[in-house]
Amino acid sequence: MALTSPSEERSPVLVAFGRTVRHLRKAQGFSQEAFADECGIDRSYMGGVERGERNIALINIAKIISGLGMQPSEFFQALDAAQGQPPGAQPHTHLRQR
């Protein structure tokens, strides 16, 4: 749950994780605040996750995946697709309807 300082470079996996969460959240029509509420996570903490600033605990990863209505394998496939893409690129995902 550590917050990186502005001088630290963000871990590529944290950035890809956050980018994937943001893309999937928006694809489902959630605002950041509504999604954080759905997950039971503070909105400002969720913002840090989406920016790749938070190295979050497994329990919070599970809350986010559940909030997206996905199986962990589906989420991590989307994360795999997002890794290695340039900043700002959208992961290629196949969302299932809620």
From TrEMBL:
> Where does the record locate the signal sequence feature?
none
- What residues does the HTH cro/C1-type domain cover? 21-75
User: Mind listing the UniProt keywords for this protein, alphabetically?
Assistant: DNA-binding, Transcription, Transcription regulation
- Annotated PROSITE patterns: HTH_CROC1
| Entry annotated with the keyword Transcription regulation | yes
List the PANTHER family.
Answer: HTH-TYPE TRANSCRIPTIONAL REGULATOR, HTH-TYPE TRANSCRIPTIONAL REGULATOR SUTR
Name under which the protein is recorded: Helix-turn-helix domain-containing protein
Q: Which organism is it from?
A: Comamonas nitrativorans
Please name the taxonomic classification of the source: Bacteria, Pseudomonadati, Pseudomonadota, Betaproteobacteria, Burkholderiales
